[in-house]
Amino acid sequence: MHANAQSTADAIAKYREMIADGNPAELYEAAGEELWKKPAGPKNATLEKCNLGLGPGVIKGAAAQLPRYFPDTNRVQDLESRLITCMSTLQGISAQEIIDAPFQQGYKKTMDDIVAYVVTYSKDLKVNVSTKHPKEKESYELGKRAFFYEGGPMDFSCATCHGSTGKRIRMQDLPNLTTPEGAIAGWGYWPAYRVSNGQFWTMGLRLNDCYRQQRFPFPIYGSEVLTALSMYMAVNANGGVIHTPGLKR
Amino acid sequence: MNLQRREVLKYTAVFGLMASAGLISSAQAEEWNKAAFEGKTIEDVFSVFGAGSPDKSSAVILNVPEIAENGAVVPVSISTTLKAQQLAILVEKNPNALVAQFFIPTGTEPFVTTRIKMAQTSNVYALVKADGKWSMAAKEIKVTLGGCGG
Amino acid sequence: MKINLIKIFTISLLIALFQLAYAQNNLDAKFEKMMASGFKAEGIAGLDRIDQDETQKFCSDPIFVNSKQGAIHALKIQNLNMASILQPSDGRFIGDWKRGEVIAQSGRGGTWTDKPDAVNGGGCYNCHQIDKKEISYGNLGPSLWNYGKSRGYSQEVIAYTWNQINNAKAYNACSNMPRFGHFKLLTQEQIQDVMALLLDPQSPVNQ
Amino acid sequence: MGDPMRIRAAENNGIVEVKILMKHDMETGQRKDAAGKLIPAWFITMVSVKAQGKEVFAADFGTAISKDPFLNFKYKGSRGDKLLVSWVDTRGDKRSDEASVS
Q1: What is the pTM assigned to this prediction?
Q2: CA–CA separation, C204 vs C97, rounded Å?
Q3: How far is it, in rounded angstroms, from Cα D102 to Cα D92?
Q4: ipTM score assigned to the predicted complex
Q5: Inter-chain contacts counted by CB atoms under 8 A, chains A and B
Q6: C107 vs B142, B144, B149: nearest CB
């Protein structure tokens, strides 16, 4: 590496190290814990019976095993689409209202807090996502196709930026999501607090903004394509250690 | 609570008296220094502080990254070997130079870390007041454009 | 007996192949359904952006792209793209490098949060080192520092660079670089200005 | 009434290291919303930290402290010290949270 580029990389590394201490995502996590236990919605119920895959109310380690197949909905769900199910079945909140809410507002804000709370309980665990169920296997295959699907006026796919190792956009390292190391560098650090805009970003918003930058149309929140892409990343990241909620530029 | 007291003090004429009588610390008697925070340049702030033109001192340690990936969050750490009662952070090219000031009572280390916003690449100043005298350290932080810029 | 075995074997093989083909078709259908139901139009980003042209369709299948047949097909794709390149209507290839630098710096345009009348940037620094003074540059593409100085300013270099910016897929079917002319991401004048940044001997890139 | 803070404080060799995260937008008054209208300034102006009832740290903020402010400082103290962190902002909103030193 060029000497100048090396010193730039070192300086950026120091910057990242300095901001790593004190992740404001903790503020969202604290709010999420309250929301999890607080009765809400038309049914005035809490989310404490929400089954994230490990049984009703079990949060510890749940995010590490998502996405997964859920018999009650007969489909593969990621954390956010599963929380939509819980909020609508347990609390009686309209799923469409959650899907349509603008990011950072209304039910999406609730979602941010709850996601921050849930993923904190998988921190330091290893990604352990199954492809045993035929629908899980299928979701992975669909996600892989979506990952390589080029479109839009710039011909971008996810793979354009995240399909090879050692690449950067401007100063930002781009993890190669097709490898185990790269997949965990991405999947293992989102959801995250983003310092550039002072917002907590769920994986749903992370992928939404990827598609925005890809110049694609707007991916519908909670849709199958987002779950499938998550499945592709998570399975590739299997065995890697989770650092959520992360702290990102 | 102290803030309420500061609020109350704002509307009373007795705080100066209380301070001079040693009933409250000078830090507590201080209210939010509007004039200092509204100063545009570092010189404006120096003048409100009555700091003259502070000497650069190796006793003032300013720990910052050379490059910030984003101007919205720039970590800044100040410490000093002096027995400081007050610390301040200034950014030369921000619309208002003064970012924050910190009051250090006896028993508290003259050290603080926080995160600041920077409008652009600029010199950042750490100001330290010890025994009534101000001294400082300065470093340049480059603010880069991150991400796809979209 | 032997004939029966062969028969059974052949039939099972046919069934297996049929199942495989069925699964493949089934996955194709599911994928299409997933993509069609997964997006909505927003701002300037219409649903037509999901529709692929021949180049995009080809490049979305990395296994085929990397096969022998894929290599042959890539040439067809390249020819197709080469044929679509427009040469400058005013005959000018080189514009103003200062404006070119501004275009290279800006990564704006084309997203659903951009207004229809917003001026697009080229986003060149996202992927390329260009002027060394800019330390925040990407590496998805090669460094363009000293672009003209090292290659020379010949007609061949100018023609190649024009084509490359207008439609990089003319030289590399699945290049990561957007087709700036083909999809009108940049205007002809903007492309001339970016050309100048790379190929004007006065440009800081060539110092 | 603002959102809860996160306060972490740990004692080591008689020195307590305190880390505080406050939830606040810290609007500069220079940002515009989607409609192009200026968002009015709104930020924390003063922070006070007391240990066992005695002020151990105070800060005055301008608009250039980052969103969701972070503070880290150290004072001479003991395990079990009760900390009270309070802030007030330009709208007069206040928030106080407690923590004990571990």
Answers
A1: 0.83
A2: 9
A3: 32
A4: 0.78
A5: 59
A6: B149
